[in-house]
Amino acid sequence: MGQSTNNSPASTNILEKWFHLSEQGTTIKRELLAGLTTFVSMAYILFVNPSVLGMAGMNKGAVFTATALSAIIGCLLMAFLANYPIAIAPGLGDNAFFTYSVVLAMGISWQTAMAGVFVASVIFTILSLMKVREAVINAIPHDLKLAIAAGIGLFIAFVGLQGGGLVVASKSSLVQLGSLTVPTTWLTIFGVLAIALLMAKRVPGSIFIGMILTTLLGLFTGLIKMPAHIISLAPSMKPTFGVALTNLGKVNTPQMWAVVLIFLLVAFFDTAGTLVGLAQQAGLMKNDRMPRIGQALMADSISMLSGSVMGTTPTAAYVESSAGIAVGGRTGLTALTVGVLFAFSLLFSPLLTVVTTQVTAPALIIVGSLMASSLAGIDWLHFEIAFPAFMVVAGMPLTYNISYGIAFGFILYPLTMTVAGRRKEINWIMWTLLFVFILMLYVLNVLP
């Protein structure tokens, strides 16, 4: 594959054999451009993921390397197993749940929490092999899936607003506007405006470019210190590699099994909805079904499993892949290109020191707003659907816990639908989940 970047007959034939370029009406040049566009659009995760997981006490350098490697594995699997122009990397919602809900809120060590991610990954892979994953996804109402995405979006945005200093704690009203006299807060404001204007202009890679501009402003004003180096070998994963395996024995409490369940559920919805949406955008759906979805889900499962061993939270299909699809990406060659670029990015870990909280906060806020767009698809006209969905959305940021928001909606939905005379529309899996979430709240000491 080393010759895949030229247009010689040999390399063209190899790429045509692997990715069926002509069948999808695309070219090598178009696929490479699509891969570059997608990578630039999602490269922020290389710096945001270490920042978020660093709050949990994890080594940022090790997380940087684990993030890149899990993305490489996910993209290569998506390229060669499923032949889709969809990139995979650690998801923002999952790392937020790991840090803020599990480690900080529940007081579970990151080592034990990572063991929980590994267990969830193993179950996840088994369920994908048995095709149970598709069955459960199909059983959960579309509106609740949309609510979960939107709720995680609001939660991520709230974390960004807080990290950037725009929202601070208040004794009288819980939260209030942060002081605009703090210089670093203006870095966040600049970053949000820069990314928002670039996105309004539809510039590819707006989030990544906005982060670069914010970093440059911080360096120019002295609010961010200049790094000692720009290029170096990738940081060692020793602080995180295999930690999940050595702490498996600690996943033996009802509380940890509740955590495993939430990781499973969030990962369930994260990739499935994104995959279908992106396939729809690319015109790859057939008879309202996504061909090779089993292979795509397996690519996600294996990358999630390998990522947990290396030391990062669950991976997911990236909605930013839509940027590459928009410029013509139609095959796995796009995903392969993204994977190669992630490999190249391993050389730039010293830049972690300049990517401060104020630099990553705008990315969280903007991505949160993008995820909140799912609100538009919820049926707000029927209260029996709207209220459970609302409780999912509101519950996540207001309890500062993704799992509680999901629990509120999944407990309420079967009840409101039954009272509204729509009991026959409720799948038995939803009734099962109602009791599972009640049990979860009990073991988390929320219920008496």
TrEMBL record:
The chain crosses the membrane at residues 32-49, 61-82, 102-126, 146-168, 180-200, 207-234, 254-276, 297-319, 331-352, 359-378, 398-416, 428-447. It is a multi-pass membrane protein. Keywords: Cell membrane, Membrane, Transmembrane, Transmembrane helix, Transport. It is found in: Cell membrane. GO terms for molecular function: purine nucleobase transmembrane transporter activity. GO terms for cellular component: plasma membrane. Belongs to the nucleobase:cation symporter-2 (NCS2) (TC 2.A.40) family. Azg-like subfamily. This is NCS2 family nucleobase cation symporter-2.
